[in-house]
Every structure is written in C-alpha cells, then in structure tokens.
Specification:
Rossmann fold; UDP-N-acetylmuramoyl-L-alanine:D-glutamate ligase; 3 domains
C-alpha cells in the first residue's frame, strides 16, 4: 500500500543542518531532499557523505560560519553535539528562526507512516539496516533512517513510497522519546552515555518512557536473554494496549532461537515461530548479529510482513559500513573495520572474528577509545575485552563532543588490558600506526580497526603499507 507524498513541516521546507555530515543528520537531510525540501547545511570537514548530499541536491558548506545561513532559511536543525556558541546557531537565534532538534525532525518525517523504531545500547544500526534491506527486498518500499551507511556514503536513508518507516532510535540523549512507533524494538539495556545518565535507574526510566510512546495496539519486540531487557520487560508488562514479543535463546521466548550454526563469515539460524521451525541465513558472522536478525524478523512480522518471505529476504543484508566490514587484504593479512566502542560490543565483535578466523590466525586490534566520560567509567572493561585479541595497539581518546577530563587517558585501558593478560601497547601518533601494524602482522592474521572515532581512516592506510 503506498502513501501520498508526506508534507514537509514549514520549518523544514528550507532547512539548514548544522553538522549535516553526521550519521543521523545526513539521513534526515537526504529524506527531506527526496521529499522536495531545499536542504542546506554545514560540516566541519568535507567527506564522501557531504558529497553524496550534494548529489542529492543539498548545498553543503565546509566550516561553521553564520554567513552560511541562507537569507530565506526556514529553520535550523541541530543535534545534541552542537554547542550553544556555534556561530550558525547564534545567527539563527538572532534572526528568530525555529531551531529543531534532530529527533524532532525525524519524528516529523514519521508522521503519517507506520514507524518501526529500533532501540538498545548495542545493535541498533545493524538491526535497523537488516529490517530496512529485507523489507525493500520484499518490494514494500519502506522509508528508513539509519545511523550507518549500508553500501556507500549517503545510503543511510531513503524516502520510500510504502507506509512503513524504519528508524534507528537513539537513547544517548533521550531523543528516542520524540517518537511514537507502531513497533518498538529494544535489543538490550546497559549503562552507557555517562555524560547523560548517572545510573541504571535513569537508563531504565528512559527506556520505559520510550516504550510508553508505543501507539495503542502496538508491539514491543524485546530480548528475552539480556538482563537489562528482561528487567525492562518486567517493568512494562501489563501496560494496556501493548503487545510484547520476546526474542532470544531463553526457553520462554516467543520467537525462540534454537540453533546458530557458524558458516565462515555467515551464520545459519533456526527459530521456533508459533511452534514451527524456520531456518534462514545471516550474511555476517557472530552470535550477536544472529540475535539482531531475529529481532528484525520479529519486528517485520509485527509490521505485517510474511514471516517466511521476510526470513529469506534477511539474507540479502550484507552488512553496514564499519560493522565488521572487510576493508581488504594485503600480503595475506585481512583488515576489518569495527565500530565497537562499548566493552560489550568490543567483546562480541572479537568473539565473532575469532569464531570466523582460521585456527592459527592471530587477531590484532587497533583500538581508539571514544569519549573521555566512557573511558573513565568503562576503561577497565574495555581493557578486559582487548584480552580477547592476540595483541592491541591503543590510541589516544577520541574526544568527539567532550572536553578532556583530568587523569582520563587511554592508559586506563592499557593498564586494565595488561592486568587481564593482554599484549597491549600505546601509540600516541595515529600516523605511525600503519608502520607499527606492518611490523606486527604476518600472513593469515586479521587486523581490526576498532572504535567510533576516526580510527576507521587507518584501514586503507594499513592495507597500503602492507602491500608496499
């Protein structure tokens, strides 16, 4: 069933995005451009994403300057990463323009659709991508907004003619409270984003608020295995008008995983669905990705997709950029890029690679910690996760939106890694890493560039040095 072209809110008819190249911002900008809005924005540096937005019709400035704000701009879109003293934001306020948070802009785009919102401390991007790709393969023409690119710059969003809108729902700044989904997915609930949450109680309250926004008669798809998700389920169970579907390996799961069989860089998964077995292929390795696929399956079924057709369509998903993405091979060494930056994600990706690698292969990690606050709170756990690698090179903390915290450095992680028996060394010069890795790696080894910052840039440079 197709929908008429959704209207664009007045403030978003000629929007200016501050930080338009960001994962979440670029997707919203792309959908607005596809709906006919005249989109402009700025970013700190040029990038393939910025170029993709230009090709979609957007005007993209490099650098932040109040003069970039067009005279007829209808409003400004910001994320939580934009500081109050940003010159473009200041210019917008002086002119009295509406300032719209990224989450409010995405919520406006979902008006008039059947939203599926995917939340959780880990796995959001992968699960959202799996569902978007599978629904597209079924010809349902979904719209989607994802926090990562599927196959190339700018492929993180699309305005489709169908009624379903699949969106990644970000809990980091509570922005997922803006959405009213028909189907909500909660993959897991853990403490993260320490600048915004002081305790697990605050995290649970935030996720409860998100679940409370599910439309009357809607569905919550939630993990039956992960302790935080199980606790959340107990807190929201019994809410009138909410259908709960649990997924996982636990005996009582509504969609129960009975077998996960690794097959190199893929997996074969069998679930019990209404008492009948259903087997399908997941085209990425690792147990956690199998769980993400089953959550996507349950969410798609809740949105009305035929179960067996959807299961087959999930095999068309081949990965998201930066989610165990093979960057290439040189001199017998494979280089893989991982976005993992929380200890749980790090351990899961390392276990997945270990399971897919040859028995005699070594796993070498170049890890860049992300955020000072996260390093302060979880540095010891990050170090313990690195013990799953054969050797690690740890870079300085990538600050992103944060100012330094006295005493918080990557040494916290290195000390914890060594205490756990890991071979971990510091490298303060990012440019020196390709040479360092070339001196470590041997044919058959796998190298992971790991972290949410700009460590991803090192993959091609490591490959070039290995090849040279």
């Amino acid at each position: 069933m197709s929908q008429s072209s959704p209207s664009v809110p007045p403030a978003l008819e000629r929007p200016h995005f501050i930080g338009i190249g960001g994962a979440g911002m670029s997707g919203i900008a792309k959908i607005l451009a596809q709906r006919g809005a005249r989109v402009a924005g700025s970013d700190a540096k040029d990038s393939p994403v910025a170029q993709a937005l230009r090709e979609a019709g957007a005007t993209v400035h490099i650098g932040h300057d109040g003069a970039h704000l067009a005279a007829d701009a209808s409003g400004v879109v910001v994320s939580s990463a934009i500081r109050p003293d940003n010159p473009e934001l200041a210019a917008a306020r002086e002119r009295g323009l509406p300032v719209v948070h990224r989450s409010a802009a995405l919520a406006a785009l979902m008006e008039g659709t059947r939203p599926v919102a995917v939340a959780g401390t880990h796995g959001k991007t992968t699960t959202t991508s799996m569902l978007a790709v599978a629904l597209t393969a079924l010809g349902l023409e979904p719209s989607y907004a994802i926090g990562g690119d599927l196959d190339g710059p700018g492929s993180n969003a699309r305005h489709g003619s169908g009624r379903i809108f699949v969106a990644e729902a970000d809990e980091s700044d509570r922005s997922f409270h803006a959405y009213s989904p028909e189907v909500a997915v909660v993959l897991n609930v853990e403490l993260d984003h320490h600048a915004n949450y002081a305790s697990m109680d605050e995290i649970f309250e935030s996720f409860e608020t998100f679940v409370g926004k599910v439309r009357d008669g809607g569905t919550l798809v939630v993990s039956a295995d992960q302790p935080g998700a199980v606790e959340l389920t107990s807190r929201v169970r019994g809410r009138e008008g909410l259908r709960i579907v649990t997924v996982g390996e636990s005996e009582g799961a509504d969609v129960r995983i009975t077998r996960i069989t690794p097959r190199g860089l893929t997996s074969e998964v069998t679930v019990l669905l209404e008492g009948r077995p259903l087997t399908f292929t997941v085209s990425v390795p690792g147990r956690h990705y199998a769980h993400d696929a089953v959550a996507a399956l349950a969410a798609g079924i809740a949105a009305g997709a035929p179960p067996r057709n959807l299961a087959s369509a999930l095999a068309t998903y081949t990965g998201v950029r930066r989610r165990l993405q093979l960057k290439g091979e040189a001199s017998g060494v494979q280089v893989i890029d991982s976005y993992a930056h929380h200890p749980t994600e790090m351990a899961a990706d390392l276990e997945a690679i270990r399971g897919a690698a040859a028995a005699d292969a070594r796993v070498l990690v170049v890890f860049q910690p992300h955020l000072f606050s996260r390093t302060r709170e979880l540095g010891a756990e990050m170090g313990a996760a690195l013990a799953l690698a054969d050797a690690s090179v740890v870079l300085d903390v990538y600050p992103a939106r944060e100012d330094p915290i006295p005493g918080v450095t990557s040494e916290l992680i290195i000390e914890a890694a060594r205490a756990a028996g890991a071979d971990a060394t510091a490298e303060h010069d990012k440019d020196a890493v390709p040479e360092v890795v070339a001196g470590m790696a041997k044919p058959g080894d796998l190298v992971l560039t790991m972290g949410a910052g700009d460590v991803t840039d090192l993959g091609p440079r490591i490959l070039a040095r290995l090849a040279g």
